[in-house]
Amino acid sequence: MPAWLYWGVNMGLFDRFKSSNAPTQKGLTAKEWCDKGDALAKSGRHEEALQCFDKALAIDPRYAMAWTLKGAALGMLDRHEEALECLDRALEVDPKDAKAWALKGATLGMLDRHEEALQCLDKALELDPRYSVAWNNKGAALVKLDRHQEALQCLDTALAIDPRDVDAWNYKGAALDMLDRHQEALQCFDQALAIDPTNAIEQQGKPVALEKIRKTAPKKQ
Fold first, then answer.
1. Distance separating alpha carbons of residues 88 and 100, to the nearest angstrom
2. Predicted model pTM
3. At the fourth CATH level, which superfamily is domain 130-216?
């Protein structure tokens, strides 16, 4: 499943909260605690981020974004069942939050509950048809269910919206590879590596595609 979703992050937030001119911790509002947690999560400090989200929710228990971002942080810590509980709380408050639905779908995918994941992702796309991450995650779920042709349609839609989506190129390569379209799969992995040369998933997928091409190539006389 693709990387966890983060959105609306102002990368200057973390520096603002480190600054000596920042407001005292005691005086932060729920939104400020949530923003601080969001910045910490973006920098990979998920345990610290959880503390901030909990402080935000202590001030405002119906703060949907804090529940959603807490769910994301828990997911990054592989605490997926707890993440689902938070996302359900977020959706109780705001059932029209496409990002929360998409993140719930991604979380269910991490638990191999792919059919349920598809239902959540369809809900996200009903609310926001141009949400590329939801199209990408739907394609990934379909790949896991061996519905590769359907997956390709979703991944092509994701890439039409965001041509630099590395995860979409990766899952498209995987779907093509499973359909024995190895040359096309290789092109997708190359595209993903061109965008992000450090991405380990594509580096693993490319040798597999190359090996299948080698095995299926006509032998020279």
1. 9
2. 0.78
3. Tetratricopeptide repeat domain (1.25.40.10)
